[in-house]
Amino acid sequence: MTKLYSIVKNLSEFIASRDGVVLTVSAISLVVSLFQGEDASFNFAWVATILCAYYIVHEVVETLVKSHTFSAELLVLVAIIASLYIGEYLAAGEVAFIMRLGETLEKRTTRKTRSVIENLAKLAPRRARILRNGGEEILVDASEVKVGDIIRVLPGETIPVDGKIIRGNGAVDEQALTGESFPVDKGVGDPVLSGGISRCGSFDMTAEKVDSNSSIQRIVRLLQEVEPTRTRVGRLVDRWAAWLVCLAVSIAILAFACGLGLKRAATVLIVFCPCAFVLATPTAIAAALGSAARRGVLFRSGDTLEHLARVEIVAFDKTGTITQGKLSVAAFKSLDSAFDDSEILALAGSVESFSEHPVGRAINQRAKEMGLRFPTVDKFSYLPGNGVEGVVNGALYQIGSERYMNTLRVDLTPARNDSDFQRVDIGKGVVYVATEGKLVGFIALIDVERAEARKTINAVKALGLDTVVLSGDSKKIVRVFSEKLGFDAFRGELLPEEKVREIQAYQRAGKSVCMVGDGVNDALALKCADVGAGLGGVGSDVALDASDIVLSQARIVDVPYVIQLARKTYRTIKVNLTFSCVVNAVAISLALTGTLSPVYGAIVHNASSLLVVLNSLRLIEGRRVEETTS
Fold it and tell me: Which pTM value belongs to this model?
């Protein structure tokens, strides 16, 4: 019943629209014309012809004036004029009506994509509550917010810009931006996105990304770039349509010259109209883009769908793409009898509490979760690329990488000979703890793969594609993740330009590559690949700008979805083109033999156009595609 109600509601809204009124009146006039007698003083088919042919005349004139070329609409117009000339008013009205119906369906299909923009634009707040000196609250336009401004968000208000909470807390609803089903608890230090809604609690935040750089505006801008642009197939169809105009007119003239009569010549023009042929590509592209946009996948152009349908290899970055990009402590152990295991973690946690490095935050967080007491730290120092050091109870402790330990001439043999170390070292990063030139313990960390990582890789491989990891992490770590998740190949310790060289090597071998990444170091590879897919939300601005596809909800499970959608789109286009060519060929033969009259020729031709549009519209839901990847 709910679906029936939705259908009735949509139909009533359509009938009430301008296009709906024109088509409804035209349809009624054609039905009346069908039952009119031949001696009627006025044929109501003229009503449909005039109402529906107006836009055809407009398109023909615009194309001739602006680009000085023929278009498919010109052949349609010639067919309508020829039908009117020989008195086949119903045929003329039918051709004009179905062309207008096809154009309206195409426009409404494209509008599905555009409606996503309108809905997102409504989320963008117009006002912001800025705190001035002394805590005075001032309401200003959201566009006037500057980076560094302190903004107060009250319960029920929409967050105006991207930023970070500095005071207070709240439950923020970011479903429209990230797809998170429930409000997320946010506190001091947590990032918040523009367009999110504070469902409960109030907080003060520092503005970090404002105006056009905010999350909501970036998504809107990306969507505005998503147009059903002409693909290579579409441009080829356009060129063929121009030739078909000349061919159709030539055959009609030849038929008339051979004595087949003006009626058969007019019928040839009617059935020869390449309406279905021209509608085959743009309707399918528009429907696919609309379906993807509702899932949170944004394409920069219709061409991307065509490239994606031909992809043979999918390359993934590791950190932040197939993993969560958030380190956690996997194990820790003391290697000195003067310390127990928890003391090693407490020492490291206390020193790392002064560090903003992800490794330090992970160690500090784990120590806090265990409720360990932090000793006082003096003389903290951060050594970029190596680690940290600090004085605890009068002793200097150094915490860092193997390279840092080597520069300090610390012997790591006790760790390497430890059975626990040998078990946790594979695939994990290790931080060493030393004092007075002696190793006293180690802490192993790991970046956990995304929950959907294995499912995604299996789904991509099920499509017959090869998978590869291209990462800057150590080969040992990359190998473990690759083998665990079932990748076909992996490359580790790659600089950004080396990722590009790996992709170019595949391309030189004749392979089409889709690169999936999220960070600044992936931008070159995303740009170099045949198709670049950037993760929104967690992805860097540079990576997203370099991408052909933006997965705005940062779900890598959308990768097999978009590939399957691209393939289905191009299968639909091929079916549309083949069907329209076969129908036209049969109809022309029947028209030349006199089997097909102008009226029935119009019905056959226009029915094929309508079927092509309806076939494309099946992509708008994408149910079958989504079921296989969700």
Answer: 0.61
| Residues 33 and 97 sit within 8 Å (Cβ to Cβ) | no
Q: What is the separation of C-alpha 618 from the centre of its chain, rounded to a whole number of angstroms? A: 19
- Percentage, residues of the chain above pLDDT 70: 76
- Which residues touch 336 (CB under 8 Å, ≥6 apart)? 438, 439, 440, 441
Pairing outcome for strands 297-299 and 313-316: unpaired
Residue 584 backbone dihedrals phi, psi, to 5 degrees: -60, -45
SS3 call for 394: coil
**Which bin fits 135, alpha (ψ -120 to 50), beta or left (φ > 0)?**
left
Closest CA to 270 of 94, 100, 33, 103: 94
CB 516 within 8 A of CB 317: yes
Taking alpha carbons only, the member of 626, 607, 624 closest to residue 98 is: 607
Report helix angle 598-617 to 262-272, nearest 10: 0
Q: What is the pLDDT of residues 518-563, one digit of tens each?
A: 765 677 788 888 898 888 754 455 556 667 788 877 688 889 999 9
Q: Enter the tokens of residue 575.
A: 């079916």
> Rounded to whole angstroms, how far apart are CA atoms 115 and 306?
24
> Do 151 and 205 contact (CB within 8 A), yes or no?
yes
Residue 266: burial class (beta carbons within 10 Å; 0-12, 13-18, 19+): buried
Say how far residue 227 (Cα) sits from the centre of its chain.
Answer: 13
Please identify which residue in the block is written with the tokens 């809204």. Answer: 13
* Residue 442 · residue 394 · CB < 8 Å: no
Task: Report, in angstroms and rounded to the nearest whole number, the Rg of the chain calculated over CA atoms.
Answer: 33
Helix (H) or strand (E) holding 171, with range, is strand 170-173
Main-chain dihedrals φ then ψ at residue 87, nearest 5 degrees? 85, 10
Distance of alpha carbon 474 from alpha carbon 403, whole angstroms: 14
Q: How long, in residues, is the chain?
A: 630
Q: Which residues are catalytic?
A: 317
Q: What is the pLDDT of residues 601-621, one digit of tens each?
A: 767 766 777 788 788 878 875
Q: How far apart are CA 375 and CA 240, in angstroms?
A: 79
Please give the Cα distance from 22 to 18 (Å, whole number).
6
SS3 160: coil
- C-beta of residue 106 within 8 angstroms of C-beta of residue 610: no
Bridge partner residues of 131 (DSSP): 137, 150
Q: Is 342 exposed, middle or buried (0-12, 13-18, 19+ CB in 10 A)?
A: middle
| Partners of 172 in beta bridges | 184, 198
